[in-house]
Amino acid sequence: MPQSRKLLVTSALPYANGPIHLGHLVEYIQTDIWVRYQRLRGHSCTYVCADDTHGTPIMLKAEQEGMTPEALIARVGEEHARDFADFGISFDYFGSTHCPENEQLSRDIYERSRAGGHIARRTVEQAFDPVKNLFLPDRFIKGTCPRCHSPDQYGDSCEVCGATYAPSDLENPVSALSGATPVTRSSEHYFFRLGDFTASLKTFTETGALQPEAANKLREWLDAGLTDWDISRDAPYFGFSIPDAPDKFFYVWLDAPIGYIATLWRLLNTQAPRPLSLEAIREAWGHYETHHFIGKDILYFHALFWPAMLEAAGLARPHAIHAHGFLTINGKKMSKSRGTFITARDYLAHLPAEYLRYYLAAKLSSHIEDIDLNFDDFRARVNADLVGKLINIASRSAQLLTRFADGRLGTELPDLALFQEFAAAGDDIGAHYEQREYSHAIKRIMDLADRANRYVDDKKPWEMGRDPRQHAALRGVCTQALNLFRVLMAYLQPVLPAASARVSAWLGGIDLSFESARTPLLGISIEPYQHLMRRVEEKDLAWATTAPEPPAPARTEVLAAQPAAALIDIADFGRVDLRVAAVIDARKVEGADKLLQLSLDLGEGRLRTVFAGIRRSYDPQTLIGRHVVCVANLAPRTMRFGVSEGMVLAAGDGEGIFLLGVDTGAKPGMPVH
Questions:
Q1: Bridge partners of residue 126, in order along the sequence
Q2: Residue 216: other Cβ atoms inside 10 A
Q3: Exposure check for the chain: N or C terminus, fewer CB within 10 A?
Q4: What count of other Cβ atoms lies within 10 Å of the Cβ of residue 458?
Q5: Residue 135: which of 212, 60, 211, 219 has the closest Cα?
Q6: Which tens digit of pLDDT belongs to each residue from 607-617?
Q7: How far apart are CA 221 and CA 629, in angstroms?
Q8: For strand 119-129 and strand 93-96, is the pairing parallel, antiparallel, or unpaired?
Q9: If phi over 0 gives left and psi between -120 and 50 gives alpha, with beta otherwise, what is residue 407?
Q10: Are the folds of 6-116+200-211+253-324 and 119-192 the same?
Q11: 3-state secondary structure (DSSP) of residue 250
């Protein structure tokens, strides 16, 4: 047994103004698998989370629904807790950032930062809604993009062309709340001097607490210079008031991560004979090996602001921050208009939670990579792996054992060496779980499942059933197969906890830990086999694959907002040499969120390397063998990852990237006229 660790694990806090969706679940499933694995190995592993409940959006949504913010966050909190429970997320405590413990901690950390000279005050100018009588966050200002001139874009970024800008740069800005034109007003704000911690944050990048790509990103921010962080908001605002500052409130991103400590405090108070003091929870925080699981979009807050806040308050920094990428649905960003915004409850109305847990695990790695939920692939993988491989071992063997051998396992294994090979694989599989390389763990487990099925196929116990003289041998084969199945279910328990519980109950309440899998299960009677999982049929996915496209007028407006470039003549066009290219290989580029490295055959007797920014839209394995259009006479470009010798053509609409293809019959190297 490994030496026991005292772990504290958190997932990012879901915002309390909407439902849990499949994009959220990537993180919570990833975290839960790691937590369950740690517990199986005998470690003390505490998993806490809470709803993020403060900010202007919460206040406005509550007003819209005719209730108090407190009533809104209580209702949403119950919905979130139910969704998480139904997906098997094993929190030790799920709370809310709107609690007395978090308010006390937030004020303590602020006051310690102020005492250390890390808080500044200065006047800022902000957009103000004269009708609603409040300062407007950037996302509550809309207008025309200053770059591509698309209408109805947010005050900080354009969803059509991807540009980022200040709200003051918008053309024809209006308040999203009242439709009024914002005016500029001055207000005194409070700032955290983030730059005071530049040296220690640079050291933080070298501790191994961050993935390599996250550490590289952090270094970029540090090299660019850290600016003061605005930690205050003006009334009206739903949040905690700043001490000695009338009508000023902590910005939600100050108290949200502090909610990790506050939620631990609330959990420990349920276990202690008397409530812990502030000093006691400060001390307790430092006794854990703390791991934060987050999305890459909030890396800035967790890798810069959070460690700096903790240092300013004299608290221990996290041991590790594990960031993950985004989820796309059938190759597209999650979107309500495209029908790819799927809530947890939508999914559960049609499919078992554990199918999604398995599918995501089969794709997740330790890198910050986007993953795609393709429902055709989902159906094929679930049916092939879980039903066709894993459950097939138990189904065939158990039914034969019940029919021809009284449902009792034999007293020895006919192939002990094979069982020991399966048992020894636990070290390798466990290492993959520990390193969050779940896709490698799943592949290893499914390779073993193939081996178990080959064993049964080779022995043909169904033929033994026809001859009573071979029933003893049949018992041995089925005993061997069911023991191999039991080992596989132990390895899959972090991913499939509910299915593992059903298997454990079916086999008489046996333990399904990694350690127990090293000892054969012999001589017991089993209950008659009951179906453990069912196949996914096409009809089961009709709800997910028939999503309507946006209405034509909306698409026309978007395209019209991107006018054609200036006219060229045929000679200009003739200078561009477009060729058909076959994709021979495609792979992800380490350290680049958007790039795939393509090896292209243009009929030249050699392969060209082309780096294409299509990683968020395409799984590289699906590109191999495809024909694309390539700019063949583009000057080679030296990039950090290598030399790119061309460009593949693609179309984009702000939500997805779509490679241009060619009809059947086109050959590599053919010119495109």
A1: 185
A2: 12
A3: C
A4: 8
A5: 60
A6: 899 998 888 77
A7: 37
A8: unpaired
A9: left
A10: no
A11: strand
pLDDT in tens, 49-72: 999 999 999 999 999 999 999 999
pLDDT (0 to 100) of residue 656: 65
- Domains of the chain, by residue range, sit at 6-116+200-211+253-324, 119-192, 327-562, 564-659
Decide if 410 contacts 523 (C-beta within 8 A). yes
Half-sphere exposure of residue 608, counting CA atoms within 13 Å on the CB side?
A: 27
Cβ(140)–Cβ(56) under 8 Å?
Answer: yes
Per CATH, the homologous superfamily of domain 564-659 is: Nucleic acid-binding proteins (2.40.50.140)
- The secondary structure of 327-352 as a DSSP string is EEETTEE--TTTT---BHHHHHTTS-
User: How far apart (Å, rounded) are the C-alpha atoms in residues 176 and 155?
Assistant: 10
Q: Which fold has domain 119-192?
A: Methionyl-trna Synthetase; domain 2 (2.170.220)
606 Cβ neighbours under 8 A, 6+ residues apart: none
Task: Check if CATH label 3.40.50.300 holds for domain 327-562.
Answer: no
Tell me: the pLDDT tens digits for 543-553? 886 544 443 33
The DSSP result for 154-200, as a single string, is ESSB-TTT--B--GGG-EEEEETTT-PPPEEEEEEEEEE-GGGGHHH
Report the alpha-carbon distance of residue 11 to residue 131 in Å, rounded: 38
Q: What is the pLDDT of residue 203?
A: 96
Compute the average pLDDT of residues 31-47: 97
Options 3.40.50.2020, 1.10.10.10, 3.30.420.360, 3.40.50.620; which CATH number does 6-116+200-211+253-324 get? Answer: 3.40.50.620
